[in-house]
Amino acid sequence: MKNLINERITELETYVTNLREIIVTINKEILENKLVPGEQQKAQIAHYAKQGEKALKDIEILNDQLEKITDNHE
To answer: Which of 33, 54, 30 is nearest to 42 (CA)?
Structure first.
C-alpha cells in the first residue's frame, strides 16, 4: 500500500512540475512577443493553475494517509 501511495505522489509531483513548465512557457511567449494575453490564454493558465492546486491537495491527502499507515505499523 505504501508503495502505491508513493508512486501516486511521484506521479502527481511530476504532473505539477509539468503544469508549472507549461504556464511558464505560455507566460514567456507572451512576454517575449510583447503580446496581450487573450481570454483563451488567460483561461488556459487559470485551468492549469487550478489543476495544479488540485494535484497539490491530493499530494497532501496522500502524504497524510502515508503518515497514518506508517504510524500504525510502528
So the answer is: 30
